[in-house]
Structure prediction request, 67 residues.
Amino acid sequence: MKLLDTPLTDCEKDDILKMLDGNICRICISDDSEEIVCMLGFAVDRLSMIAYSRIKQLKNKSEKGDC
Prediction:
C-alpha cells in the first residue's frame, strides 16, 4: 500500500475506484485461483488506501479546528 502524506484528490480516488472495479471483475471471471488471490490482494490494498485517505482527511480537519 502506498503511504499517504495528504488525503487523495478526487481524481486519484476515482482512478483507484476504477482499478478496484477491475480487480472485482477479474475475480468474478477468472478461472485461475492464483489470479483470484492476486486480485484480492490488490483490491484490499486499494480499499485500504481509500479508507486511510479518508482518515487523514478527518484528522487534518480536526487539527485545523473545523467541525
Observations:
- The CA atoms of residues 7 and 55 lie 8 Å apart.
- The chain is about 75% helix and 0% strand.
- The mean pLDDT is 93.
- Residues 13-53 form one domain.
